[in-house]
Amino acid sequence: MRDLRRRLPHQYPAGKWLFVTWHLHGSLPHAKYPPPHKLSSGAAFVWLDRYLDSTPTGPRYLAQEQVARAVVASLRRGVRLGHYELGAYAILANHVHVLLLPKISPSRLLQSLKGSSARQANLILGRTGETFWQAEFYDHWVRDESEWQRIAAYIEENPVKAGLVQRAPDYRWSSAGAGSESAETSLGAADTSVCATA
User: Which alpha helices (H) appear in the chain, and where do they start and end?
Assistant: First the structure.
């Protein structure tokens, strides 16, 4: 088991699915994180996700259809390159949740995935030389099938909990709604319908 350290340890046992969440640079002010009270890593993640789902401030580039489409294309590109198998995913206004089975080093695949999606997004947004993603990310290796199912459901229900859609299949920027390109509700709804995750 490799143990890579930044601010948090990232442990990657071979052959295990990973639940990974990363967010836009500047979407979580340094003064807000870590939370003021001591939390387990799981509780800190829930706090982070609720904050990102409910904050009306900070960058929300992923709410733009072209940018969300570029992130989905980057996710699918990683599968075609053989970097990972893709399970559930959801692209929210300021963060991304992914469940994947690495076929190469997780740190290498995340560098590739985040790097290619950042380049494409910055091109779309007309930004040059600006940081797109926050360097740090949350990850958790999945222990068994029942945990995989719980995490996949959590990811696909996240747009519902964030108040973006009524039903998970209606959200086009997730694995639950990936087949419904004609879905009327998208990330743009986040600008008018922001609610806290319950």
Answer: 41-54, 65-80, 106-125, 145-161
